[in-house]
Structure formats: structure tokens, C-alpha cells
Specification:
32% helix, six-stranded parallel beta sheet, alpha/beta, globular, 460 residues, Dihydrodipicolinate Reductase, domain 2
């Protein structure tokens, strides 16, 4: 980890949707809570000037954050703007001028991957890539081959230690809490293996559709949009071995190691679905075979996890919006109280959103003469208005040169390798009705492990 702090922040795509929804609120938070005091240069081709960028920043923070006039005024003092074509050398010459004396800039590429090469080359030719860092947004390609091509483009101008592949899911407090809960509580680690765990489920459910993004979604689908990246990273957090304390990159190395041990998915391991009415969305092909729902069954070929199925599903127009992990423990070896008629429930439930919950499922005796029990959950819930938003945390880490929460080349390529055999219509798509839990065909994946665990609505 390079501990030197970047002395300027440049973000390409300054007038785009990501900047509007995420980056401007994160920048104000960095100014307010972390005393960020370096030049911040927005770059875009929109025919704008600095006043228009500042107006856009105010609108962004008002709508997607919490406007703080004092912090916003400080942010405005730091903002610069360069308007120009990413393929024109003059754009980068003017950027170099705006950077002034800055010699260690952080470049954030909030732009399509097809522009990475042109921007990286423009930065290098203008002297803006020396001692610089670069942050790139997902998607990191569309498959394994294109991911490797993107990496080679970036490696022409930046070393791996200067490349920060951002997955905002890794900046979420509840996702980090998976690691903290596992590695700070010794009571879990002895049980965290195939001797005691029968299955692991990860569900990312959304009760809405594509929300006007049909054109984008019809090029991606659920597997590329959230399973290949966000949810495989959650799997890595659940399955990885403890990282060696104090060793740089140990966390990233362990995640990459476990992802490389995940078997490549076969068509029999996936069920794809599409909600009724998706093909009527603007931008969606009338005969689209893109999935709005996907369920996969994965296995990890290590001693710790041999034989334990990991089930991941994600879908739109499901009954609730929630992301939840359920780790199900095996039944006791002997049914001491002859309760074969009941479903014994030993599990750890980690609710990641919209509320944060850690729940331990146990069976306890019911009051009365008989030795009969009931399933209960010991629940710890956590709500805090002081939690950092993912982009605030991740941009701050990138400025400090801390790659812990950023994906490595090995991890990204392992994730694409895992899903490459089930992309682009490799299996049929099944129609399901909105407000249901997806196509009934997905039930067969978990039939041998007590079925799916459906997240419940968050309490009002």
C-alpha cells in the first residue's frame, strides 16, 4: 500500500449520472468530515463552464445528500472544470494547467470502459499519469476476454498498485461488517466450515423494475449487473480465510484466492428469469432474452468448503427490496427429543440492506410438560446516521492509496471466469409474475437444502 496522499482529484464524466447521484455528495462529505483540501477538477464534454458545474453540484447534493452550506462553499473553492473531448490532446493540456503544482493526482474515470484507453493515453501524453492513481468503475468488461483487454490497456500507463477498481458494494458498512463479525468473534470460526455448515444463501431482491434504464439493462442483465461483481464479492467475504494481520494487500489476496477456488458455473447451476412486462419497457427489445432474475448454485473446491453449496439469487420486481445472507448449520447428529416432524433451525442471518441485522437462529423449549421446542432468533439490529456512504469511504481510501476495499486483477478475472459459461443466453429464460419470488424453476436448485430463505420486509 502506497501511503502518500494524492494532491489533486480529477473526475472524468463530471456532468454524468454517477457524478450527480454519488460523487458530488461524497466530495462534500470528504470536505466536511475529512478536511479534504486539494484541487478537484471535473472533466466532461458538455459545453459547460465552472458556474454550471457548481450549480449541478448544489442540485446533486440537495437531492442525493444533505447540503451543508459551509462545507459546500469550501468544495466550490476547490472545484475546477475542463470542458473538452476526451480524444483531443488540448483537453489534457488544459487539465495539466488546472492541476497547477499537483504532482500526484488521482484520476477517477466515471466514464464507459470504451473510453479508458483514450483517456489513459491522453493523461500520459500530457504528463498527468506520472505518480498518479486511477479509479475505474464497473463494468470491468463484459466477459473474461474483455476484462483482460481492459487490464492491458490500463497497464500501458499505470502499475497495478496505482489502479483502483471500484465496486461500491465493498464500501458499504454492512458488507465490511461480514468480515469484522467473522474475524473478531472466535465463537464463529470453529464452526465456519463444511463440518458444521450445510449451505449458504445470498439474496439481493428489488421490488421495482428497470426504472427507465431498459436500454442499459438489456445490454447487461442480472448476472452481469450484480452477480458477477457485487454478490461474488459478498461470497468472497463469507468464504475467505482470515487475512494475515499487518500484511499489505492480505485482504485482497485472500479474496482473490477464494474466488479462484470457486468452480466455473455450468448451465445446470443457473436458472434465469424475466418478469412479465419487461419487454414492454422503453429500450428493451421486444424479443429480449435478457434475465431480470438469476439464481446460481456454486461450489468452492477447498478443504474448508468442500461439498457446501453457495446459492446466490438476484432479481427485480420481487416482493421486497432487501439484501440478505443466510448461513444454515447442520442438524445435530442425533435427534435427542424425537422432533423429526419439525424443521430445526440453526442459522446465522446477516441483513445487509435496507436495515442492518445480525440474527442467530436457535431452537428453544416451549413452556409446558413436553420436551418440544420452537424456532427463535436472537437479533442484533444496528442503525446509525453517522455511517459513511460507500463513495465517501472509497474515494477517501483511493486518495490515501489504500487498495483494501478495491478489487484486484486476479479477483476480477476469477469472477468473470466463474460466470463465463452462463452468459448471453446459455440457458432459457423463464417468465415470472411481478411481486413473486421469481420463476418456480429456481426452487429445484435449493430443493435438497430446505428451499430458499425469503427476506422479510423491513419493520416500519
Amino acid at each position: 500500500m502506497d501511503s502518500t496522499h494524492s494532491d489533486a482529484l480529477v473526475f472524468f464524466g463530471a456532468t454524468g449520472d454517477l457524478a450527480f447521484k454519488q460523487i458530488f455528495p461524497a466530495l462534500q462529505a470528504l470536505v466536511k468530515r475529512h478536511d479534504l483540501n486539494i484541487p478537484i477538477v471535473g472533466v466532461a464534454k458538455a459545453g459547460w463552464n465552472l458556474d454550471q458545474l457548481i450549480a449541478r453540484a448544489r442540485e446533486s447534493i440537495t437531492k442525493h445528500g444533505s447540503l451543508d452550506e459551509e462545507a459546500f462553499a469550501k468544495l466550490c473553492d476547490l472545484l475546477r472544470y475542463v470542458d473538452g473531448d476526451y480524444r483531443e490532446p488540448d483537453t489534457f493540456a488544459r487539465l495539466r494547467s488546472e492541476l497547477g503544482q499537483a504532482s500526484r493526482p488521482l484520476h477517477y474515470l466515471a466514464i464507459p470502459p470504451s473510453l479508458f484507453g483514450a483517456v489513459a493515453e491522453g493523461l500520459a501524453n500530457a504528463g498527468c499519469a506520472t505518480n498518479a492513481r486511477v479509479v475505474v468503475e464497473k463494468p470491468f468488461g463484459r466477459d473474461l476476454a474483455s476484462a483482460r483487454e481492459l487490464h492491458q490497456i490500463l497497464y500501458k500507463f499505470f502499475p497495478e498498485t496505482a489502479i483502483f477498481r471500484i465496486d461500491h458494494f465493498l464500501g458499504k458498512e454492512p458488507v465490511q461488517n461480514i468480515l469484522y463479525t467473522r474475524f473478531s468473534n472466535l465463537l464463529l470460526e470453529p464452526l465456519w466450515n463444511s463440518n458444521f455448515i450445510s449451505s449458504v444463501q445470498v439474496t439481493m431482491a428489488e421490488n421495482f423494475g428497470v426504472q427507465g434504464r431498459g436500454g442499459f439493462y438489456d445490454e447487461a442483465g442480472a448476472i452481469r449487473d450484480v452477480i458477477q461483481n457485487h454478490l461474488l464479492q459478498v461470497l468472497a467475504c463469507l468464504a475467505m480465510s482470515p487475512p494475515t494481520a499487518g500484511v499489505p494487500d492480505a485482504m485482497r489476496d485472500e479474496k482473490a484466492r477464494i474466488l479462484k477456488s470457486v468452480r466455473t458455473l455450468a448451465p445446470d447451476d443457473v436458472i434465469r428469469g424475466q418478469f412479465e412486462g419487461y419487454r414492454n419497457e422503453p429500450g428493451v427489445k421486444p424479443d429480449s432474452q435478457v434475465e431480470t432474475y438469476a439464481a446460481v448454485r456454486l461450489f468452492i473446491d477447498t478443504w474448508r468448503w468442500s461439498g457446501v453449496p453457495f446459492y446466490i439469487r438476484a432479481g427485480k420486481c420481487l416482493p421486497v427490496t432487501a439484501t440478505e445472507v443466510t448461513v444454515t448449520f447442520k442438524r445435530p447428529p442425533i435427534d435427542t427429543f424425537s422432533e423429526n416432524h419439525c424443521e430445526l433451525s440453526n442459522h446465522l442471518r446477516l441483513r445487509l440492506s435496507p436495515d442492518v441485522v445480525i440474527a442467530l437462529g436457535m431452537r428453544v423449549k416451549q413452556a409446558g410438560e413436553k420436551m418440544e421446542g420452537e424456532n427463535v432468533e436472537l437479533i442484533a439490529a444496528h442503525h446509525s446516521s453517522e455511517e459513511m456512504a460507500p463513495y465517501e469511504r472509497l474515494l477517501g481510501d483511493a486518495l490515501r492509496g489504500d487498495q483494501t476495499l478495491f478489487a484486484s486483477e486476479e479477483a476480477i478475472e476469477a469472477q468473470w471466469r466463474i460466470v463465463e459459461n452462463i452468459l448471453d443466453g446459455a440457458t432459457p429464460v423463464h417468465i415470472y409474475q411481478p411481486n413473486t419470488w421469481g420463476p418456480v424453476e429456481a426452487d429445484a436448485l435449493t430443493a435438497s437444502n430446505s428451499g430458499w430463505h425469503d427476506p422479510q420486509p423491513a419493520p416500519k
